[in-house]
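re: the backbone from monday

yeah here it is again, tokenized this time
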């Protein structure tokens, strides 16, 4: 049965399944009303693109104007239900579309040719790594210039307009260069539907002289998309379930571990149902935090090798059978390739493939179908969870700070823990915030986002802008280091401009702390800013902003009270000044192991 993709209800809970449309009915079926003819001014390429964006749930496009995309922006603005969010630079526009896609299921940005596109491409690469359907729209050269020997501005000075296109080929799943109206309808619809089906970014370049030209192809309201759902091979599914059930049922202390690809597989609910049925302990890889409910009775924390949640690694690594749901084992998630796991004890479940130990393997088996089938075949076994329950010791609390003592990071996150709720989403920047936010216990409904695979510092500023714009029923709590903030700081002004109510904790420790712990050097020290003064300067008295600079626990408590109380309707920016060597113990361990992996000598030739 075909699945029709319709408008996304913006008031629905945001989605924690990266690259998927929101849960709980976020995708609605279009009403089957007759398709009406459009007046000439509306039957243009620009309006068709705008209507398609609104149809799939995009109500905000993050844009930076340039001479090649100005007419296109006019037509996007003319579409009811579509808003342009002007960003300070193209990189942040891309990051914002990334954050928007995490909350809405799909995002879009619009930039100009080459100078805009190549500025944005780093963010698009990050979205590709995280399986996010981001539609990157570029205003391209006049259609008459294609095939000529002309040299255009915004290029590298060669009569070749394909440089940008070739760059985007490796970080998008589909590329459309539209320099003719005759096939524009097909190319736009193919690009957008491919982004939704593959949960990856796409690139659409539109010649600057085409958006305003009426064409018969756009004379009717677009027919709603109908995307055929992927199906499991039934025989393969049954064989995979039987083989996995036999493997797990003979194990003494099996465990379940959720991985990040569970998001694109839309398998979170099926995974939780499996956990309910089998009684195994349930852990998450760090990049899967937020994909399963942490209030689940058998949840044991984050499995991250030597920097796991207390007692989690001991249970996972001592198990005689592991089921990993959509894992990514890279150098970061494996803590420098130091995980104590054996492949022959592992079932690897990818979005459309199951591998049991060293074999057999089953293709064309969808993850959620596999979990649903497996839940019916497993014997209940709580041995591993009982072992966890026996060895578990509750977390301790940081030492009480002395009056006016310099604030410690662990005290800061003790207070952030009290702030998170089902009405908040935590966004964690690359750096020590990865490790500190990983230790937060997420209440039911609380969102959590970070970019572990690509790990681009500065990502969180734009992503916070995009997520908050998409999920206005949530209050975003962003934890950002000073080094990362300096990369993308300008778009705090865009947050203010659009009345967002985010709480930003700017952790000022004087440098790139995560890189210090991998390999120290003078390049990891940065110029200190007066961050609160910076935010006040970009606000310029125009918006609703609260800033505070805190050095002690007493000052922090006062700032938080203001942020959730009298200033709850403001963008709240709290600069937290901590010692340069105040890091989590997990970062110290992780950094030394990643450093060892990075510094391995060349293999003998």
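seq for it, each position gets an aa:
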């Amino acid at each position: 049965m075909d699945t029709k993709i319709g408008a996304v209800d913006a008031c629905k809970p945001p989605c924690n399944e990266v690259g998927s449309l929101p849960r709980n009915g976020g995708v609605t079926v279009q009403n089957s009303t007759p398709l009406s003819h459009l007046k000439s001014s509306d039957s243009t390429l620009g309006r068709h693109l705008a209507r398609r964006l609104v149809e799939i749930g995009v109500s905000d496009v993050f844009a930076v104007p340039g001479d090649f995309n100005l007419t296109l922006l006019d037509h996007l603005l003319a579409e009811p239900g579509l808003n342009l969010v002007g960003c300070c630079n193209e990189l942040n526009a891309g990051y914002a579309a990334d954050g928007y896609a995490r909350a809405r299921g799909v995002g879009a940005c619009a930039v100009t040719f080459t100078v805009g596109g190549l500025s944005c491409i780093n963010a698009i690469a990050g979205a590709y790594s995280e399986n996010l359907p981001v539609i990157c729209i570029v205003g391209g050269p006049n259609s008459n210039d294609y095939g000529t020997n002309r040299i255009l501005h915004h290029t590298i000075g060669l009569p070749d307009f394909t440089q940008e296109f070739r760059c985007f080929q490796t970080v998008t799943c589909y590329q459309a260069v539209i320099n003719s109206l005759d096939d524009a309808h097909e190319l736009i619809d193919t690009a957008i539907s491919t982004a939704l089906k593959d949960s990856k970014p796409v690139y659409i370049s539109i010649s600057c002289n085409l958006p305003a030209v009426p064409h018969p192809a756009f004379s009717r309201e677009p027919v709603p998309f109908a995307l055929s759902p992927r199906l499991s091979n039934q025989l393969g599914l049954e064989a995979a379930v039987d083989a996995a059930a036999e493997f797990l049922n003979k194990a003494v202390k099996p465990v379940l571990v959720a991985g990040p690809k569970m998001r694109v597989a839309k398998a979170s609910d099926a995974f939780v149902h499996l956990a309910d049925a089998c009684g195994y302990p349930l852990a998450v890889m760090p990049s899967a935090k937020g994909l399963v409910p942490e209030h689940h009775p058998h949840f044991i924390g984050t499995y991250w090798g030597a920097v796991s949640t207390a007692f989690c690694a001991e249970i996972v690594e001592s198990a005689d059978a592991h089921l990993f749901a959509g894992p990514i084992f890279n150098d970061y998630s494996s803590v420098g390739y130091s995980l104590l796991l054996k492949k022959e004890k592992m079932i690897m479940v990818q979005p459309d493939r199951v591998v049991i130990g060293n074999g057999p393997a089953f293709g064309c088996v969808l993850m959620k179908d596999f979990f649903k089938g497996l839940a019916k075949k497993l014997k209940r076994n709580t041995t591993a969870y009982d072992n966890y329950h026996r060895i578990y010791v509750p977390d301790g609390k940081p030492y009480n700070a002395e009056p006016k003592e310099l604030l410690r990071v662990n005290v800061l996150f003790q207070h952030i823990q009290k702030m998170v709720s089902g009405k908040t989403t935590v966004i964690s920047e690359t750096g020590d915030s990865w490790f500190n936010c990983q230790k937060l216990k997420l209440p039911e409904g609380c969102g959590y986002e970070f970019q572990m695979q690509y790990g681009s510092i500065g990502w969180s500023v734009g992503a916070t802008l995009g997520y908050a714009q998409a999920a206005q029923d949530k209050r975003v709590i962003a934890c950002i280091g000073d080094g990362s903030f300096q990369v993308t700081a300008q778009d705090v002004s865009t947050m203010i401009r659009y009345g967002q109510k985010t709480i930003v904790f700017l952790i000022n420790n004087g440098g790139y702390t995560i890189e210090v712990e991998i390999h120290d050097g003078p390049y990891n020290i940065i110029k200190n800013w007066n961050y609160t003064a910076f935010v006040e300067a970009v606000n310029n008295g125009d918006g609703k902003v609260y800033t505070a600079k805190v050095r002690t626990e007493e000052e922090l408590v006062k700032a938080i009270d203001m942020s959730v109380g009298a200033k709850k309707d403001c963008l709240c920016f709290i600069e937290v000044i901590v010692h340069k060597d105040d890091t989590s113990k997990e970062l110290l361990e992780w950094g030394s192991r990643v450093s060892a992996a990075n510094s391995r000598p060349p293999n003998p030739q």
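DSSP finds 20 helices and 21 strands in the chain. The mean pLDDT is 91.
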